[in-house]
Amino acid sequence: MFTIQRSSLFAKLVMVLSILFVSLTLSFSNPALAHTGFDKSNPPANAVVTDELKELTLTFEGKLESLSTFKLFDSKKQEIKLDKLLLKEKVMTGILSQPLSNGTYEVQWTIVGEDGHPIQGKYSFSVQREGDKQAQTELKTSPSPSATVVPTSTPSPSATEVEEVSTSSNYLIYVGISALVIIALVILLLARRKK
Q1: Among 28, 71, 82, 138, which residue has the fewest nearby CB atoms (within 10 Å)?
Q2: What confidence category does residue 93 fall into, taking pLDDT thresholds of 50, 70 and 90?
Q3: Where does this protein have compositionally biased stretches of type Low complexity (predicted)?
Q4: Across the strands, what pairs with 49?
């Protein structure tokens, strides 16, 4: 009779500890489900830049991981290579080898935040400098809808659109570990009962 009470007490203890462990794991994993969002950029979305532009800066709401990057494309969808890409905490800075000429540009970024979740987005801006005759001629000879300058003071809904790429892997890791611990405890409980 003592053995049955001891097993029953042990089983209840295992169940309580398992529930406590799973609850704590899920409560601590909630911050991992929050994604690092886009905060602001320089130049801003839909801006018309009239000065020489040699640097692009994107700022996010959380710390960025080393896999974060962005690419710059002109109105013909040709990639403009960055001379350097710098990551510091929440800020990603792209240094250009030469100033951008007149035209419309699109920045496509992909970041990995502290939670390990990849997020991507894009926004556009235009450069319209006086005295940049080569680019002005280029715009006149090859007009396209994407080269239209749209001066706005508020960004359009698509200006900073964010698309999620995959689910958080941290959450799945916690669930997997919890399941393994529960299975191990059940096996241990069954092994003790057989004795």
Answers
A1: 28
A2: very high
A3: 141-161
A4: 127
Of residues 111, 188, 104, the one with CA closest to residue 146: 104
What percentage of the chain carries pLDDT values higher than 70?
62
> Which token pair is 127?
């450069």
**Residue 163, Cβ neighbours under 10 Å: how many?**
10
- What's the total number of domains in the chain? 2
Main-chain dihedrals φ then ψ at residue 47, nearest 5 degrees:
-75, 155
Contact 61, 90 (CB under 8 A): yes
Q: Are residues 42 and 137 in the same domain?
A: yes
| Mean pLDDT for the stretch of residues 146-168 | 35
Do 11 and 45 lie in one domain? The reply is no
Domain region containing 155? 38-164
At 67, the amino acid letter reads L
> Pairing mode, if any, of strands 48-49 and 118-127?
parallel
